[in-house]
Amino acid sequence: MRRATRKAVSLALAGMLTLAAAAGCSEKTGPSSASQGSSVPIQSQTQPETEAVTGKITVYTSEPQDLVTDMLEDFVGKNPGITYELFRSGTGAVISKIDTELETGSTDADIIWFADIGYMNQLDKEGLLRRYTPKGAEKIDPSFNYNDGMAWEVRQIFNIIATNTLKCDVEIKDWEDLTKPELSGRFAMANPSYSGGAFTTLVGLVGEEGPGWKLYEDMKANDVKFEQSNGNLQTKVASGEYAAVSIVDFMARNAANEGSPVECVWPETGAVMVPTPVAILSTVAEENQAACEAFLDYLLTEDAQKFFVEQGYIPVDPSVGVPEGAPAVADIKTVKLNLQDFTENSAALRERFASIFGE
Amino acid sequence: MKQRSPRHFSIHRRGEGVQPRELAPTLIWVATAAVLAFAVVYPSVMLILSSFKTPGGFGLGNYLAVFQDKAIGVSVLNTVKVVFPSTLLSTALGVFLAWAVVRTDVPGRGLWRSLLAIPYLIPPFIGAISWTFLLGPVGFFNQLWQSVTGAAWPLVDLYSLGGMVFVMTIYRYAVPYVVVLPAMKKVNAAVEEAARVSGASPWRTLRDVTLPLLTPSILGATLLVFMFILADFGVSAVLGAPNQIRLMTTQIYAIINRPDLPGNLQLAAAYSLLLALFGLGGLALYDRVLAAQKYVVVSGKSAPVQPTPLGKARWGLFAFLVVVFSVTTLAPVLATLATAFTKTFGLPFGPGNATFRNFARLLSIRNIRRAFQNSLFLSAASGVIVTVVALAVAYVAIRGGIRKFWGVRLMQTMVTVPYAVPGTIIALAMILAFAQPLPVTGIRLYGTIWILLVAYVARFMNLGYNNISGAITQIDGSLEEASRIAGASHLKAFSSIMLPLLKPSLFGSFFLVVAPTLSEITLSSLLWSVGSETVGTVVFSTQEEGKILLTAALAVVLVTIVVVLNYLVRWVSKDDMGI
């Protein structure tokens, strides 16, 4: 009797795994063969606009996995003919994936979306990005259109300061306050060598309107800590490991809205606007091009803009308001960001940073 | 645990029986050779070739660069500083615990025996993550310390070399523990008794009698744990990231992920081969120890183990076991559970701050759902492939019949080596071999889930091989011969005599492969791509993203699956396998 049960369980176990295998397998063959562009039905390019768009988009991004998944699910929910694939990792890892894929053949990415405008400029120079003007582009500020349709800002991210209300015992109003001795060893930022957002912040802060390199030198002297991602900064300022951090605004705001002891500080000199645009690659298979365009169109729709607000982001469409706890867009002061620095001076800036921090 | 006894890496000698060639076995042999050539030989050759590839042709440039690179030098030094202490500490702890639960009268021996083996089931990188909840700068322990003492700084810094040594010791002691346990049971109690009768204390008996008798077994366990720790990627990646402390494996990983560096893969290849030397050195020593082991007299048929009476000290030992169990298992598990059920991070955990939504969130993210599907698929598929190929290689190697075929030894080596060298190296070899489209067919494995399957099969072949070859050795060749004499073909004799007898081992080898592949991280983290994420990679990236609550929930789900699987397997196999 017992023996029989054992046998049954053992068979069930094996069966379960085989089923899982079969499921995994069938799910697998679809995307992998599709990505080689062999088995996807060819779509007519001349379809009228009212007809549902079909195709598949593969998005490479450094957006938070949960937020970007919700967004994509909403998009395919509204466009039943479209499916998506998502590769999500840190900005550095996403870029290294694309580079490796390009080096050994072709990349699977159709759409890229991360905080490295410099890298996008470089891809553009190599002719790897396709220009497109999404519907609704007229609603947004022209500065959100990079290089004449090469890439589009779809919501705004600012690098600001966040403090832990239980652990931070000094008043912080501006970037320079981060070098106060009370914060020695208790202030952190993302490492510009790894994080696109942190490098952008550096470009802004050492630029003409920012506090300059002295800020970084003083922070070095004040034992600043580095984290590899903004997500880590969010958790660690919430938990009190750091009294203050330099972080992207939505993460700090979301933590505060969740009830964590976090307060957002918008620096008096100005926050740094971090370009995190979306771009379409020029290598997208023809049958998927319409789907990629539909995705960019979608991101600027009122629904998507409201969705961004729900997720805690400040939108690019001024008509949908701002998330709870965020300042009105008109009140946000930013330091000027020299976009040329990204492509032309990037290496020199990185080098200077490295020399200060002895990397 | 019998199946995984010390012979993790043994290479079996050729069998004596010579049988005439037949077509069917030859075909099977050729097919097996083809699988191994594809999954092991081709990637290895590519790895070695790449390491000599320089911009100007072939040369030693990459090796020179390895020796000149400062970061690489630091990583070698870090590796030495972590691997040796944690190897020694985990061996000492594992052997002591095995002794405590087998050869003493500590209260609750039987229960302790199972409890102390639990860390064997927990994937070390999950263990490392659990420890960050506990000993991280704002882990429960440091928070308690700071609130009690009012100190401004956490007491313990887990993100350090010392932290790595600690976590590796905590999770790896289980390897020597389960390896030495069976040998510990076989030590003749009469020898110990003789010592005690002559007036030696229990400690003296342990030191001067029991341990020397077990030296080969302990030495084998030490080398085994050395290879495991050397190969570690998960623990050092999790604990090293915040302060950018790199060991050899994580340094190779970092170099592979620097496509902006010209020739980065070739440099990584050269560095990998140096690291492989350490692993292979360990393997060679291990084989030697095993060969020596048979001369050690451990009486096979001793009376039931007579535990050493410790007197009052047994309660001291009991207390020690309680501490070990609490520290290694209970505390991290509770910390992980508390974190997984926390609603708002940064506020104290309690009834008002508890929720199930972290688990619900996992299910709502498609890539995470699919990661579980992918891992189940990969582990089941590699379990089947490994079992079939290992059966073919082991059978042919032991039963012969094709003695005249070249390469029996070579095949055994191909099965053994990928498990003896760190997984990071296997992953790199796979990238070098399969990133470009394959010749003739034009199929590109890199970027699909199939490269993961090939890598898993190559890496874990050895687990199945040892299990099956051990079983074949135990079946007398005369059984098959009888059937052959009665007129059965080779294949018929095999399928009607050997297969039924081997069935339990075949199931065993399947599950031995399934367990580690389910939570695999080293190979996956370098080889995954769109649509082929695995459980290991999503845990890793969720952790990197700073989503602590989700990471904890993932860890809870993964460990639950592994533990349930283990106990089912143990029940199905009637305690023959599993912990």
Write the layout of secondary structure elements.
The complex is a heterodimer of chains A (359) and B (579).
Chain A: H1 2-35, E1 55-61, H2 65-78, E2 82-88, H3 91-103, E3 111-113, H4 117-125, E4 129-130, E5 145-146, E6 151-152, E7 155-156, E8 158-164, E9 187-190, H5 196-205, H6 213-221, E10 225-227, H7 230-239, E11 244-248, H8 249-258, E12 262-265, E13 272-273, E14 278-281, H9 286-299, H10 302-311, E15 314-315, H11 339-357
Parallel strand pairs in A: 1-2, 1-3, 9-10, 9-11
Antiparallel strand pairs in A: 3-14, 4-14, 5-6, 7-15, 8-11, 8-12, 8-13
Helix pairs in contact in A: 4-11, 5-11, 7-8
Chain B: H1 23-51, E1 53-54, E2 57-58, H2 61-68, H3 70-103, H4 109-115, H5 124-135, H6 140-149, H7 161-172, H8 174-186, H9 189-197, H10 202-231, H11 234-240, H12 248-256, H13 264-293, H14 313-340, H15 357-364, H16 366-399, H17 408-420, H18 423-434, H19 450-474, H20 477-485, H21 490-518, H22 522-527, H23 535-544, H24 548-572
Antiparallel strand pairs in B: 1-2
Helix pairs in contact in B: 1-13, 1-16, 1-17, 1-18, 2-13, 3-4, 3-7, 3-8, 3-10, 5-7, 5-11, 5-14, 7-11, 8-10, 9-10, 10-13, 12-13, 13-18, 14-24, 15-24, 16-17, 16-19, 16-21, 16-23, 17-19, 18-19, 19-21, 20-21, 21-24, 23-24
